[in-house]
Amino acid sequence: MLKINDINVYYGNIHALKGVSLEINQGEIVTLIGANGAGKSTLLKTISGLLKPKNGEILFESEHVAGKVPQLIVKRGISQVPEGRRVFANMSVEENLELGAYLRKDKKGIREDFEKVFQLFPRLQERRKQQSGTLSGGEQQMLAMGRALMARPRLLLLDEPSMGLAPLLVKTIFRIIEEIKQTGTTILLVEQNANMALSIADRAYVIETGKIVASGTSEELSQSDQIRNAYLGGH
Amino acid sequence: MEQLIQQLVNGISLGSIYALIALGYTMVYGIVKLINFAHGDVVMVGAFIGFYSITILDLGFFPALLISMASCAIFGVLIERIAYKPLRNATRIAALITAIGVSLFIEYGTIYVRGAQPEAYPDNIVPLKSLEISGVKISGQSILILVISISLMILLQFIVHKTKIGKAMRAVSYDMDAARLMGINVNNTISATFAIGSALAGAAGVILGMYYTKIDPLMGITPGIKAFVAAVLGGIGIIPGAMTGGLLLGVIESLVSAAGGSLWRDAVAFVVLILILIFRPAGLFGKNVREKV
């Protein structure tokens, strides 16, 4: 579904992604794990078109999308839930969700998706008219995910959905990620919480200082000594 | 007492002109974090377009107002595309200096094209009757100015809160990258903001011409700066703030004039600016934004 071939991304002089290649198949949850500053968010921003790779290619359903503007990429079916949620705090929950469907014109479909999002996140329905800046961190995460789903994406990019949330909420969020997968949406999940990420992912990539250093199925990586020592707290 | 109320009404109608101009400052600041110092000159251009529409094209007041608004909208977008867009990622001081350059360019460009001589605004274009309510005489002009400004502000509120482009504008001004991730075309949204702000400036120009009865190529400077003060007074970037700030500044000015300080009326705006910057730098409506983790 998504195929990334040998991309290089720079921030000025800093070489942030060094020849990264990665593949995601239809219907999978793929996770990208790595430490702070390894290049995880950079990769997601590049896929979404916020950053342009210097070279290499990104194919989404065999169409070249590297370096394309974000609105085209959203239109093709890739939505991102950015790190730190980035909800529009000055707007209501409902308006945030409407903005998620910004490029869509099918009013009926949008109404249906409102219902779907509210089914997935009943809390958002209760707080429909509330300013989203007044929501708790967990609720904002739900809103950011709901907002991305309003674009009816085929590939959903999730950047650190567990960040700053209480353990119980993290569980809820991960359960919902699995539910989203059940509806047929493919997911690329970026996480520092490698344990949780591997527990729901089909396959995983490990990124270190801008390079992919390991990949495989979640079971393989959970059992690899190297990965366990570096990311899963030993044992 | 009657005198006071009369001055108050004057102040409100003058203030509503400031408010119209202040809205352009605040909207542009809200979205690209730039104080568009050329905004006052867009007001001047609007006044001249209105003037020529009335005198040369022989149009009525309202068609002239609409033509002025439409032309200024296009003019504002051109300014943004030519002068500011290439500097989107430059330092803010570079953009600010450019804005001052654009301002001077428009002022002296206008003088180059048509000369520096002032024009007398036709004052009999709308049949106006003054109103008398229990001894207080309100001029028809004040009422017209108020009605136009308030309708435009209501229209603006509707655009910003209920339409798709308005929601996109608010999203872009809050978080540009997050807005991009929604598929919002940031460049078009910024252009729309300049278009709307400049259309309001065009309307303000025509009204201002009527109010002062005289227009010239440098007429935009003073109201421009006062409207900037009004925007800061209300809290720059906040739309209701610009409206309140404008009205408040107009009323303060009129009251100072009424108290016998008409020579001080221009200085008052700057006293207000200094006071607000000392005691409430975020403006009346501004709050300290805290981030939630």
Automatic annotation (TrEMBL), chain A:
Annotated GO molecular function terms are:
ATP binding
Which InterPro entries does this UniProt record tie to the protein?
AAA+_ATPase, ABC_branched_ATPase_LivF/BraG, ABC_transporter-like_ATP-bd, ABC_transporter-like_CS, BCAA_Transport_ATP-bd_LivF, P-loop_NTPase
- Keyword terms, alphabetized: Amino-acid transport, ATP-binding, Nucleotide-binding, Transport
Question: What residues does the ABC transporter domain cover?
Answer: 2-234
Question: Has the keyword Lipid metabolism been applied to this entry?
Answer: no
Concerning PROSITE patterns, the annotation shows: ABC_TRANSPORTER_1 (PS00211), ABC_TRANSPORTER_2 (PS50893)
**Which protein family is it in?**
Belongs to the ABC transporter superfamily.
Name of this chain's protein: High-affinity branched-chain amino acid transport ATP-binding protein LivF
TrEMBL record, chain B:
Give compartment(s). Answer: Cell membrane
Instruction: Please name the Pfam families in this protein's record.
Output: BPD_transp_2
The cross-references to InterPro entries, in alphabetical order and at most eight, read:
ABC_transp_permease, BCAA_transport_permease
Membrane-topology annotation of the record: Multi-pass membrane protein
| Keyword field contains Cell membrane | yes
Its keywords, alphabetically, are: Amino-acid transport, Cell inner membrane, Cell membrane, Membrane, Transmembrane, Transmembrane helix, Transport
Instruction: Tell me where the transmembrane regions lie.
Output: 12-32, 37-54, 60-79, 91-113, 138-160, 190-213, 225-251, 263-283
The family annotation for this protein states: Belongs to the binding-protein-dependent transport system permease family. LivHM subfamily.
The molecule here is called High-affinity branched-chain amino acid transport system permease protein LivH
The organism encoding this protein is: Neobacillus rhizosphaerae
This protein's encoding gene: livH_1
